[in-house]
């Protein structure tokens, strides 16, 4: 018992010493630790790292961890969040296709509800948000990035909502957050074609705000954006952001059950299952 307490104390001391060195506070989001959080004590900005190898595909557990992290940031009155990934080549591969293939009813409900929760919390967060996109970012990965207010993308990767290429439609809250960033014309073209943009194309069309040379550069650029808000009242800032996004947020808030039922209906269609099965095989054959 005593030895356990000493071990615990030693672990705490070691972890607080390594965090002090970089003036960071570290906390993890919960039981499964698929999200790491480092808060810079000087700026109050949290770097939130998706950590579900190999490709950060968003399954129920990762979404649940991310959702808890967003709650913690809000209750700690975070000064800002930078979302990034622990992978060297993938920001997030989007929704975990295995959550939608041969779905188990209760789990698919929990999965979609967790995704709705994450979207509502991230898109509507009172604190400022930026995405350091340090790898490919298709579909649900792109969704996380476009929920943020600013995007910095490392060169040589791709981003976009490619759902139509999988034989499915992007859900309405994916579309509303895409339209918050792109013109309706550009959004319609990209969504119907399922376009994956290169970093340069994404910059040109306005899907990302800056290009970075590497992950450190992307985090630095996100931090510079977030630090601009030091000059602005956080209450006025949050109110303005939430007013601009209010219609989109209410649309999902008021139709969560309908959105869930539409998702369950869609993924249970034999033609969708066939398409998802073929897509999984094509990924495995690569
Ligand atoms: C209300 C709704 C109404 C109607 C619509 C209904 C349904 C619509 C619902 C939701 C919309 C869907 C949103 C999505 O996000 S779907 C996911 C789309 N994602 C993709 O298309 C990306 C696929 N992946 C890739 O292109 C590449 O993996 C990537 C470029 C990201 C990385 O390439 P890399 O060469 O580095 O890795 P791989 O060898 O390809 O992959 C490694 C490993 O990981 C597996 N993998 C990849 N992506 C996924 C994924 N999204 N889900 C699950 N698993 C994935 C891949 O198969 C490999 O596995 P293994 O061979 O076993 O190692």
From TrEMBL:
**Pathway membership, UniProt:** Lipid metabolism; fatty acid beta-oxidation
Gene3D superfamilies, alphabetized: 2-enoyl-CoA Hydratase, Chain A, domain 1, 6.10.250.170
What one GO molecular function would you report for this record? delta(3)-delta(2)-enoyl-CoA isomerase activity
GO BP term, example: fatty acid beta-oxidation
Recorded catalytic activity of this chain's protein: (3Z)-decenoyl-CoA = (2E)-decenoyl-CoA; (3Z)-octenoyl-CoA = (2E)-octenoyl-CoA; (3Z)-dodecenoyl-CoA = (2E)-dodecenoyl-CoA; (2E)-tetradecenoyl-CoA = (3Z)-tetradecenoyl-CoA
Q: Which InterPro entries match?
A: ClpP/crotonase-like_dom_sf (IPR029045), Enoyl-CoA_hydra/iso (IPR001753)
Q: Which compartments is it annotated to reside in?
A: Mitochondrion matrix
Q: Name one Pfam family in it.
A: ECH_1
Which keywords describe this protein according to UniProt? Acetylation, Fatty acid metabolism, Isomerase, Lipid metabolism, Mitochondrion, Transit peptide
Instruction: List the GO cellular component terms.
Output: mitochondrial matrix
Quaternary structure, per UniProt, is: Homotrimer.
Per its database record, what is this protein's job?
Answer: Key enzyme of fatty acid beta-oxidation. Able to isomerize both 3-cis (3Z) and 3-trans (3E) double bonds into the 2-trans (2E) form in a range of enoyl-CoA species, with a preference for (3Z)-enoyl-CoAs over (3E)-enoyl-CoAs. The catalytic efficiency of this enzyme is not affected by the fatty acyl chain length.
Q: What is this protein called?
A: Enoyl-CoA delta isomerase 1, mitochondrial
- Protein's gene: Eci1_1
């Amino acid at each position: 018992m005593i030895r356990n307490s000493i071990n615990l104390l030693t672990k705490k001391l070691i972890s607080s010493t390594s965090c002090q060195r970089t003036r960071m506070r570290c906390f993890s989001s919960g039981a499964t630790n698929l999200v790491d959080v480092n808060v810079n004590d000087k700026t109050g900005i949290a770097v939130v790292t998706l950590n579900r190898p190999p490709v950060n595909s968003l399954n129920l557990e990762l979404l649940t961890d991310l959702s808890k992290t967003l709650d913690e940031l809000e209750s700690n009155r975070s000064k800002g969040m930078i979302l990034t990934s622990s992978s060297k080549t993938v920001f997030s591969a989007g929704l975990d296709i295995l959550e939608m293939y041969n779905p188990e009813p209760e789990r698919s409900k929990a999965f979609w509800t967790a995704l709705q929760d994450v979207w509502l919390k991230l898109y509507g967060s009172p604190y400022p948000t930026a995405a350091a996109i340090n790898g490919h970012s298709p579909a649900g990965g792109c969704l996380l990035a476009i929920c943020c207010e600013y995007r910095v993308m490392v060169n040589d990767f791709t981003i976009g909502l490619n759902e139509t290429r999988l034989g499915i439609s992007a859900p309405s809250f994916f579309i509303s957050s895409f339209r918050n960033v792109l013109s309706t014309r550009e959004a319609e073209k990209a969504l119907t074609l399922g376009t994956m943009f290169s970093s340069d194309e994404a910059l040109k069309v306005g899907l990302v705000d800056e290009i970075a040379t590497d992950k450190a550069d992307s985090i630095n650029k996100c931090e510079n954006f977030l630090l601009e808000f030091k000059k602005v009242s956080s209450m006025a800032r949050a109110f303005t952001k939430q007013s601009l996004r209010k219609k989109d947020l209410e649309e999902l808030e008021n139709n969560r059950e309908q959105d869930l039922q539409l998702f369950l209906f869609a993924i249970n269609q034999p033609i969708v299952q066939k398409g998802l099965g073929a897509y999984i095989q094509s990924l495995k054959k690569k």
